[in-house]
Amino acid sequence: MKQLYNRTLAFFSIIQSKIAFYPTTFAIIGVLSAFLLFYLEERGISRYLVDHIPFLVVNNSTTALTIISALMTGLISMMVFSFSMVMLLLSQASNNYSPRLLPELISDKVHQIILGVYLATILYLIFILFSIQPTGDKYQTPGFSVLIGILGSVICIYAFIYFIHNISQSIQINNIMDGIHNLAKIKLNAMIEDDSKSSNEFPSSEHWYEYSTEESGYLQNISISNLMDICDKKNTQIHILPITGTFVLKGIPLFKSKEELDEKTIKVILANFNLARAELVADNYLLAFKQITEVIVKAMSPGINDPGTAINGIDYLTELFSLRLLKKENNVIGRDEKAFIKINSVSFSELIYNVMASIRTYCKHDIILVQKLVIMFKYLKMQKMENTGNLKSIDLEAKTLLNDARSSITNTRDLQTVEKMAVDFGLKII
User: Fold this and answer.
1) Does the pLDDT at position 25 exceed 60?
2) Which residue, among 359, 340, 156, 343, has the nearest Cα to 259 in the 3D structure?
3) Is residue 33 predicted with pLDDT exceeding 70?
4) Quick one: which of 364, 384, 385, 386 has its CA closest to 373?
5) What letter does residue 384 receive in the DSSP assignment?
6) CA–CA separation, 211 vs 222, rounded Å?
7) 30: closest CA among 123, 157, 130?
8) Is 148 exposed, middle or buried (CB count within 10 Å of its CB: 0-12, 13-18, 19+)?
9) 10 Å Cβ neighbour count for 139?
10) SS3 label, residue 134
11) How many CB atoms lie within 10 A of CB 318?
12) Does the keyword NAD apply (predicted)?
């Protein structure tokens, strides 16, 4: 039962990131609201309003038909325009920044909710339109339902105004990177907090029993509490082999167990791994490094040449790297001072190398960006870190960057600046 609950939560988390989730939810609410109003009309709510507050009720069938038809036409036009703006945003982000940004932009709840409000109101008006009986009898016109439709249309107009404001902000690369940075920061802080409760002691799993996945996908969420319950019950320990966020192929070893497991237990354990087909920063902080790195690389490509965006991206990377320094290299999770699960993670040295390998290619010829990156390295060396061995990785990346810059820059004055940065950093470049 608990495994089913966790799988349901994982499924809900996946569909929630789809662009059709909130519009579909609001559409159902709109239809249900129409049926609720049918019930209230049967109970005589329009008759009551005509008798007590007549100026709020449209009591003429022809007028009601005209109003609803005009509202529906306007709302459909607004919805088409809003949807076109969302597609324009996604196209521009993909072409100018990185296609990897699209899942985060698609999962923007503001755009989905506004489209859902439009759709709910349109469907509501369609159902109310069917209920109007143009016979001239004032009590056969659903006056209260029409009033609710008018109020819903007013809400849609204000939602449209807010949509224009929000879309103009969302399309700016600074806001896009800020959103990515904030999601990754939340995820990293949560992992650092979990590290403080974890243990560093875990036996070698070299000769343990190995079990493979039965499907392919990105390893996103893992139900740690369920896995610890299974380990406690079966008196075993589990070593999760793939790094969270990596693409796991069918048949590739997924985890190792200290004790041999029966087929039923294996299936229960596999049910606690969520293999998705899309990546989200909220599930995997490493994706934030990839996305910001790709924005920097795209900004410095010859076709775009936007060093200002690259400088902003380096600022965001600096803060994320400083947070990553506080995280342990491997997560060992336990309960009651007993270690149950070990989860592999990307080491800091590997992470900073992968990021800098891409950035150096497009930034080594620009002395301003080289200076900015050196400032980043200096800042990282001053930070508190979980593993002091990361200092060597930072020095190595700084030395590699300055060597590449020296071989790419031909201007004498810029070369002197590179030499001075190396001396200030305490490095001897080739």
Assistant:
1) yes
2) 340
3) yes
4) 364
5) -
6) 16
7) 123
8) buried
9) 14
10) coil
11) 18
12) no
As beta bridge partners, residue 332 has 342
pLDDT recorded at residue 138: 47
Write down the H helix ranges in 221-363.
224-234, 263-270, 286-299, 307-324, 348-363
Q: How far apart are CA 392 and CA 347, in angstroms?
A: 13
CA 189 to mean position of chain CA atoms: 16
Residues 6+ away with beta carbon under 8 Å from 311: 368, 369, 372
State the burial class of residue 136 (Cβ atoms within 10 Å of its Cβ: 0-12, 13-18, 19+): exposed
Structure confidence by residue, pLDDT tens digits, 66-105 = 888 888 888 888 888 887 877 777 777 777 676 666 666 6
pLDDT surpasses 60 at 14: no
Candidate from 40-49, 130-139, 330-339, 342-351 with smallest mean pLDDT: 130-139
User: Dihedral, CA atoms, 221, 222, 225, 231, nearest 10 degrees?
Assistant: 180
Average pLDDT, the chain: 81
Which two structure tokens, joined as six digits, stand for 339? Answer: 């270690």
Q: Which pTM was predicted?
A: 0.73
| Tokens linked to 95 | 């072409």
Q: Could you tell me the strand order of the sheet in which 247-248 lies?
A: 247-248, 217-222, 273-276
Q: What are phi and psi of 249, to 5 degrees?
A: -90, 150
> How far is CA 50 from its chain centroid?
50
CA separation for the pair 282, 13 (Å, rounded) = 10
Strands 238-240 and 338-343: parallel
- Give the tokens for residue 211: 């079990």
Three-state secondary structure call for residue 300:
coil
pLDDT above 80: residue 132: no
Q: SS3 breakdown of the chain: % helix, strand, coil, rounded to 5?
A: 65, 10, 25
Per the listing, tokens 């075993």 go with 236
pLDDT at 277: 65
Could you give the CA distance from residue 266 to residue 239 in angstroms, rounded to a whole number? 14
Q: Residue 20 and residue 166: Cα distance in Å, rounded? A: 19
Name 403's Cβ contacts closer than 8 Å, sequence gap at least 6. Answer: 429, 430
